[in-house]
Amino acid sequence: MRLLMVEDNEDLGEAIASRLSAGGHSVEWVMNGQQALRYLDIDHWDVLLLDIMLPDQDGFSILRHLRRQTPSLPVLVMTARSEIEDRVSMLDLGADDYLVKPFDLRELEARLRALMRRPATTQAEIWQLGHVSIDIAARRINCRDQTVEFGQREFCLLELLLSRTGQVVTKERLMMQLFNFDEDSSPNAVELHVSRLRRKLSDIAIRIDTVRGTGYMASLGDAS
């Protein structure tokens, strides 16, 4: 999963990021509401982990903004506020679940798994980009008579590029989101994955162009 975590406590944020990254997830960690809103507006995420008490604005305002822009994104609230009124307010504003601090990281992982098992009506399982159909759950692309399946990291790369079709995605962003914090990552590793992806897409109407010195840009072409 690609997770955006909003948590201003450094010890807790580091512990969560370390645990989830070790479990194979891609975690982007920000520490205030302004950063959270910026990342929510420019990128695609599978789950938002949201602290309520933040230094610049509270999680309630972030939830209000999010539900106007992205109503289907699953949100797991992490809060030290255990009063029933606060929990009811979170759920009424659109939170899907919550954990009261302190909590066990094993419970956090279990609740994330439960969120991702929810029916497809709460998540976009299929992307339709022109004549290209992208099955998120199956990690598969269908383009007329062509079907291509991908490994987890290949599909994550493809998803990152197609979520910003026609825009340049920098190598630095791809390095940050494709690899866990404890893995060796480099521009050469990104280039290798892009090369493999291009080979798989050779008969599919998706182009990945290199923007020299910056990164890559995906675009849709005409199917043969």
Output the keywords:
4-stranded antiparallel sheet; 224 residues; 5-stranded parallel sheet; 8 helices; alpha/beta; elongated; single chain
Mind explaining what this structure looks like?
The protein has 224 residues and is an alpha/beta fold. It is built from 8 helices and 12 strands. It has a 5-stranded parallel beta sheet with strand order 2-1-3-4-5, with helices on both faces. It has a 4-stranded antiparallel beta sheet with strand order 6-7-8-9, with no helix packed on it. A 3-stranded antiparallel beta sheet has the order 10-12-11. It is elongated. The relative contact order is 0.11. The mean pLDDT is 82.
Q: What is the β-strand count?
A: 12
Point out poorly predicted stretches: none
Largest sheet properties: 5 strands, parallel
Shape: elongated
Strand order of the largest sheet: 2-1-3-4-5
